[in-house]
Design a protein that fits this description.
Structural class: alpha/beta
Strand content: 15-25%
Number of helices: 8
Helix content: 25-40%
Order of helices and strands: EHEHEHEHEHEEEEHEHHEEEE
Radius of gyration: 19 Å
């Protein structure tokens, strides 16, 4: 999951980056409203964490312009203000949720999980394909009743596949959502992590679920996998 954090206070921005990255998110930081607006309209994010009090453009104005331009990425607004009119202004401007500073990081994570589940169709709290399951709240996954221990990046990849079972995801899509922009597009980081993920969710159980689609990308079988014919 890729998140844009728009926050001008360096200490808070650093805290949010560290916390979100530890939860497995890919995080980009913008330090003023204009920069944040530009990033949000030009890149594909799963959510935006948006401070209200920002230089150049306020969080209210950033959110209003995003909705005006047809960008419907979930927006979680942060503010030190606790007045009802400010909360109303943010929500009426197109924000999806509101969190008042100071807040606990666990609550922010829970609100982001709730926001990214929303959409035209309700999304389940536990993702699954056949007997392969993942719980975004605890960041745990299972094949049948057996729990599988994944690294943060392996889990981020698995969650992305489980949110789109049966769909072909390109290497570029995986890089976009699971890594930050510091990674070079020509590196083999995706292939390395896909190989490691396959070892844990497939080969350890004698099944094939995560397939390579030649010339296109990768696909997680919607039924959760088939028996691996190899001994």
């Amino acid at each position: 999951m890729r998140v844009l954090v728009v926050e001008d206070e360096p200490k808070m921005a650093g805290l949010l980056r560290r916390g979100l990255e530890e939860e497995g998110y890919a995080v980009d930081i913008a330090t003023d409203g204009a920069e944040g607006f530009g990033a949000a309209i030009s890149r594909d994010y799963d959510a935006v964490v948006l401070d209200v009090m920002l230089p150049r453009l306020s969080g209210f104005e950033v959110c209003r312009r995003l909705r005006r331009d047809g960008v419907w990425v979930p927006v979680l607004m942060l503010t030190a203000r606790d007045a009802v009119p400010d909360r109303i202004a943010g929500l009426d401007g197109g924000a999806d949720d509101y969190l008042t500073k100071p807040f606990h990081l666990d609550e922010l994570f829970a609100r982001l999980r709730a926001l990214t589940r929303r959409g035209p169709l309700a999304r389940p709290t536990v993702l699954g394909a056949g007997d392969l399951r993942a719980d975004p709240a605890s960041r745990r996954c299972w094949r049948g009743e057996t729990e599988i221990v994944l690294t943060a990046k392996e889990y981020a990849l698995l969650e992305m596949f489980l949110r789109r079972p049966g769909a072909v995801l390109t290497r570029e899509m995986l890089l976009e959502h699971c890594w930050d922009f510091a990674y070079e597009s020509h590196s083999n980081v995706v292939e390395v992590h896909i190989r490691a993920l396959r070892e844990k969710i497939d080969r350890a159980f004698g099944v094939v679920s995560l397939e390579t689609v030649r010339g296109a990308g990768y696909r997680l079988r919607a039924e959760g996998g088939r028996t691996d014919p190899r001994p």
